[in-house]
Hints:
The protein is an alpha+beta fold. The protein contains five helices and five strands.
Amino acid sequence: MSEHKNASQDVKVRLDKWLWAARFYRTRAIAKQMIDGGKVHYNGQRTKCSRHVELGAKIEIRQGFDEKVVIVEAISDQRRGAPEAQKLYRETDASVAKREENAAQRKAQGSSLNPRHRPNKKERRQIRGFKDQPA
């Protein structure tokens, strides 16, 4: 019988590889950038990519407007489907509540913060006119 790597307790997996396997980031390179940039905290402290993940560790992840706090439930170095990847961690109840509250606040503010809005023809003329004004 073959034993999976995520089933054994003594497997050592780097933090960047675990974040990639848990599908928080699309590539390991992006996971490394986020860790180096301070967007990921391991047990409340900034960390390095080479840090080995342990069961029960608390990982804080900032992605855009959202901040997630997850507890490591299982360790794997293989990227699989989303349902299996979600079994690697458990998001805390406080984290879920805070994210939902922040999402509701952003929704209540309306579309004034829509980054995908492109200026129409009239707005482009106004911008051009504003830029061309002498200082």
